[in-house]
Amino acid sequence: MSAVAASTVDASLFALCLRLGDSALILSQRLGAWCGHGPALEEDIALTNTALDLLGQARLWLSLAGEVEGAGRDEDALAYWRDDREFRNLLITEQPNGDYAQTMVRQFLFDAWHRLVLERLGEHHDSRVAAIAAKAHKEVLYHLRRSADWVVRLGDGTEESHARTQATLDLLWPHAGEMFLIDEIDGEGLRADWDAQVDAVLADATLCRPASTWAQQGSGQGRHTEHLSRLLAEMQVVARAHPGAHW
Amino acid sequence: MVAARPAVETVWQWLSAVLDPEIPVISVVELGIVREVAWREESLVVTVTPTYSGCPATEVISADIEGALRAHGIEQVRIETRLAPAWTTDWLAEPAREKLRAFGIAPPGRRDPPLSPTGPTQRPGRVLDIRSLDAEAAPVCPHCGSAHTRLVSGFGSTPCKSAHVCNDCLEPFERFKCH
Questions:
Q1: Chain CA centroid to CA A55, Å
Q2: CA geometry: angle at A13 spanning A12 and A14, to 5°?
Q3: Is B153 in Cβ contact with A45 (below 8 Å)?
Q4: ipTM more than 0.85?
Q5: What does R_g of chain A's alpha carbons equal in angstroms?
Q6: In terms of CA atoms, which chain B residue is nearest residue A47?
Q7: Are A45 and B156 within 8 A, CB to CB?
Q8: A155 to chain B: which residues are within 8 Å by CB?
Q9: Which residue in A52, A127, A197 is closest to B130 by CB distance?
């Protein structure tokens, strides 16, 4: 393999690891903000368990990204010392927690995608990618079961919970399309499988699938919504105020 | 030339005394996370497979293993992490299941068919219907033995456990999730 071809492969692998690692990291940070604020003890524990799984997955992806890049950056350097324009997380993962419907619909739309992507990456030709994907996939099945349950519970709940869940679905929907437009992931069939999963749950939840197919894009080039900068400010402040600190 | 380099069988026995920090009735060997013990030149290399990606006990376990081996006089210990095949509760030793029950934690069900301890991780069938993903039968209450129990939450006090309540004795309990 020529040097040029090899570096293209590395760049593509690096981009893939950042996509998955950053998405897991940012969603983990969002869910972590619920710690101590969950509507019930079990919910508090479930949200933070999910956050913990995603954080563990983010560490694996970002460590591999650093290894592939070969520039001496480890998981911490990538998490704490990049600015918003260098992050490659999907836009949906940085959206605010809002009310419980917003947190759970965001989780469900992402989980349904995450599960399918990890299933496919389990067959990836790079054994390191396949290993992380296979491991993460097992954990994501729990996340998906739970978020799907909540979408049904809230959508098919009271008039108030139904209205708020439909409103949040309409709000987040434009951020869903971007999940299928990732250069490094073959979107072939992914969208159809995702639609089948999501439509079945939305039907159970008595929710209407938004008609618009317009997709907000930009995270692949580091163009994010305004929410990411503030999230990063909070996540990175201690590491940046005390560079290299240990405890 | 090292005169008293212990056999790996001996090391396995020592590791059988290293307990899981979160569930201190089962050892790291019974948990199925120690995948290999081998001498590489002058270093003893212990290969460990993590349970859950974000399990905070993973680093404690590595430190405990290292500490135990040093206490047995081994100076050069290296802990290596192996992700594939992914850990599964099918690797839990049979006696460990009974110990979990006695400790008040319902043991995990078995996958059907069981996953091979050495082979590639078996990929689950492509089930697109999310509702049919939840196939695990209700656990038996570890306190009173009743099969009449209900799930409270799929997430318990640690990533590996779920929360349940017994409908008969009314006691809450945790289950080690089938993973």
A1: 11
A2: 90
A3: yes
A4: yes
A5: 18
A6: B155
A7: yes
A8: none
A9: A197
Name the DSSP letter for residue B19: B
Pull the structure tokens for residue A166.
């439909």
- Cβ atoms within 10 Å of A69's Cβ, excluding its own: 16
Sort B179 into a burial class: Cβ within 10 Å, 0-12 / 13-18 / 19+. buried
Domain-located, residue B14: yes
Q: Go through the domains of chain A in sequence order and give each one's CATH number.
A: 3-241 (1.20.1260.10)
Per residue in A26-48, pLDDT (tens digit) is 999 999 999 999 999 999 999 99
Q: What is the pLDDT of residues A166-186, one digit of tens each?
A: 999 999 999 999 999 988 888
In our burial notation (b when 16+ CB lie closer than 10 A, e otherwise), range B62-92 reads bebbbebbeeeebeebebeeebbbbbbbbbb
CA torsion sign, A218 to A121 to B135 to B167? Answer: negative
Token code pair at residue A64: 């591999």
| Domain of residue B157, residue span | 94-122+136-176
Q: Do B54 and A144 touch (CB under 8 A)?
A: no
